[in-house]
Amino acid sequence: MEDRSLWFFTFARLQQRLSDILEKPVDLVTPDALNKAMKKRILKKAIHAV
Q1: Percent of the chain with pLDDT strictly greater than 70
Q2: What's the structural domain count of the chain?
Q3: 3-20 tens-digit pLDDT
Q4: Is residue 34 a part of any domain in this protein?
Q5: Which of 2, 23, 33, 34 is most buried as measured by Cβ atoms within 10 A of its Cβ?
Q6: pTM (two decimals)
Q7: What is the domain range of residue 40?
């Protein structure tokens, strides 16, 4: 459980940092978290970062 909590806070910090840098709201999700009915459409519009 500790690893999962750490991952969540790291993910949340990353989302906030990206939002600060871009000066825009950022929706940061894993592909598995996307709604199955909308996944294809969302991934078409997604901006992927590495």
Answers
A1: 94
A2: 1
A3: 778 888 999 999 999 999
A4: yes
A5: 34
A6: 0.65
A7: 2-45
